[in-house]
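call fold(seq) -> tokens
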Amino acid sequence: MLGDASRHWQTRVADALARIPCLTSDHKNFFGAAPLEPGRHLLVHRGLPNTPRDQPDALLVCRTGIFALVFASTVPPELNRIRHRAETLFGNLLFGRSQYAAHDVQIVLMTPDRSSIRTDGRFAVAKVAQLDHTIQGRRREFRREQIERIVRTVAGKAGEYQLLEVDAGSYSNDDTEEALFERSNVNALQRDAALQRPFHEWMVFLDPDQLDLVSRNYSGPARFAGPAGTGKTVIALHRMARHAKRSTGRLLYTTFVATLAACQETHFHQLAPGTADRVKFASLHSWAMRFLEERALRPDLDPMSADRVFRDVWDSARGSFEAIEPHDSYWREEIDRVIKGRGIDDLDVYQRIDRTGRNGVLLDADQRRAVWEKLYTPYVLDMRELRKSDYSDVISIALAEIRNEPADPYDMVVVDEVQDMTLAGLQLAHAIAGGGGSSSLLLLGDGQQQVYAGGWRLADAGISLRGRGAVMRVNYRNRQRIWAHAAQIDAVNSLGGFDNEPVVLLRDAEVTLPDGEVVRWHGPNHYLEAGLVDAIRTCGKRLSDIAVLTRTRKMAERLAGALEAVGIPICLLESYDGTSCDAVKVGTVHRAKGLDFAAVLHPTEASPTEPLTGHDRDRAELAARQQLVAITRARDYVWIGIREH
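ret:
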């Protein structure tokens, strides 16, 4: 039952609606259901009941977002024009450096009880009894001052709408507080103001330069490049959301690691609810497996058998390779990331290629022949005899199949952390988008953040960007001290520049957030757990905002067990999907790619002080990039645990 305060508020709403002429009983019922609580502000079109067909009947601004309300019994053919008008009203409005992402406006079709309209992600549908639930269901957290400034500004410039004056005078012209700035009036001081906002406000407010990239159109494959924290993924998700709200086509977000895809799916469906049936988030391997299953070609993926087969092959051939490089992992990577990863099935091709990212160990023609004949060929034959496949096989089989019989292309394909894809994986993503020079493929990447061995060049994949894309230079994630520490790491950019521009490294970025804390811990390996626990308990961050990131799975398992032993709840990154939980996230740097945390704790080892050669140099460069990735996951606090043996 409603309390006295709620009944009193409803009475005031009804009185305010009664002062607006020409409202029918249906109008009053819906509008009465919309502002059921203080803090919701309704602007009603003065033309009702004859609102122009390309304009919303009303606008609602409240804590959970901005809504364009439309009376309809069927989907209006002018839906895109209605959205354009709503976005025009709320676009170009800034809070300091942050601009409201106008495509976040949610269109709600207010329908009669007998209507059977089904939502498709471009709009929500609500009957009178459902409207309040629809409004409360969005995960937005507008602050009171933001709401009031938005309402005051839009009410002042949109003369065709009148504010429902429940609290008379709340937004009078005598209010001296400065309203939202039109973009043209923002000066340099405002643009340089520090960005102070919660993690997920990027769902609603973006830098104006980011919004330009959200709405920019490309005629073919494009690339967003830039160092860590510059908003590449954020812009891509907004591009996807904007497109999903304007069409009914299919979209795909894919990446190398499943954790990132799962987390971004959680965030995206808050940006564009109702699109789950046509906007897919999946690692490239999982997409390929589903695709092959649909084609009745599903391979028997068996990573454990692959490991066992390679160990047997290595044991038989190690004498030919240990003098060059004694670590068997190096030669496994040579098969997975170079030969299979590039789709090479001919020795002559392997002997001619530039082994990008693997030049610490220079293999001559005879050595490559030995790799081919003593490692690669026996491994492939033994796996074939077992009728088993490895991860590289999944990509190559899917690529061959889609080239033989193309699938219906997606309206948009986003490839995140592209620097960690193999060349064959990149070619598959391009084929999924339709291939060719006009495919809607968006690549996101930064060569300083490559955490897997090997590499490639875009030219190797047959993809031409032709000036399509942009380089980001503003770091929105890391506070000053954290950025400064990470920028000192000598992490080689493995992906190269963009459009003949110089490579933009992390140290070249502009930082928006001040302060930050970096703690360095040195101690014996067996004291690592104690140092880690103390840091978690004293860093001042909630457990849900803390991550422990390691270079190896073995170390992650060790530290996860140590935290559980002292009663600190954990969530393994392997099962994390971006949903908030009161537990410390624990996992490898590889699993943390693209994620954000308030605090990161990263155990590591002291860097070598002597010049390195051969594979040691490759390994050290890879370790440096992994450390950079770990540290730049943090916004406020970093703990670096340097183990001494």
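The radius of gyration is 28 Å.
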